[in-house]
Amino acid sequence: MDPSPNISALSLFDLHGHNVLITGATRGIGAACAIALAEAGANICLVQRPPTDGVENKGTYDAIIARNASATIIHCNLEDLDQVRDLFPRALEAMGGNIHVLVNCAGIQRRHPAVAFPETDWDDVIDVNLKVCWILSQAAGQHMVPLRRGKIINVCSLLTFQGGLTVPAYAAAKGALGQLTKALSNEWSQHNVQVNGICPGYIATDMNEKLLQDPVRLRQISERIPAGRWGEPKDFAGPIVFLASRASQYVCGELLVVDGGWMGR
């Protein structure tokens, strides 16, 4: 690994001139992360589904442009692995041949009792939450390792550590993603490529809508969070900039839990 830069503390977080490829940034945690990275100076390549009925979701893009930052949209259906295999080369071309940071944030959820969990749902969850991350990370490593620089950030989960209820596929995928993060870090840290994960706790996003609408589960979960509240997407602005920047140059294979104290309890 290259030595950590000897510059001022605030300069460590400066991302001007850095190109970021991020999945899952149309809403929630991903959108907040993309905007935060843009505010730190990065050029953002947003991966989005092809427009439905010709209507493009440009909320995150517009928010970045409004901050006088740079954003590009590239279309890919992450449930189509053939499209995913072509994604990194397409993004690389769109960003002028350089990607400094990959953020794997896209994810899907399926909830069923384990005895009735459909195999098709299992495959979909494993593919989007794990295999897509592997395909993109491998492509990023092939680009970053020879250049001796780069950051890969995987958005994991509390279910990287815990089993959850009625979400066996999601727990399996996120558990494996945590191990993949460590495995890639073990190989690539020596080449100055830092691979880390962020593990969100209970965050008020669309993915948790069913929990938020269940008064019993909402109360049970809320009472167990030491911070006394569910997290918000903006709680990830600081952690994502830290892991994407030179401030985390000696942070390798870390799973950074952002959960209001849930795991500490």
TrEMBL record:
Any Pfam family the entry gives: adh_short_C2
SMART domains from the UniProt entry: PKS_KR
Highest taxon above the source species: Eukaryota
Recorded family membership: Belongs to the short-chain dehydrogenases/reductases (SDR) family.
GO molecular function terms noted in the UniProt entry: oxidoreductase activity, acting on the CH-OH group of donors, NAD or NADP as acceptor
Keyword Nucleotide-binding: no
Sorted UniProt keywords: NADP, Oxidoreductase
Domain named Ketoreductase: residues: 18-191
The protein's name in its UniProt record: 2-deoxy-D-gluconate 3-dehydrogenase
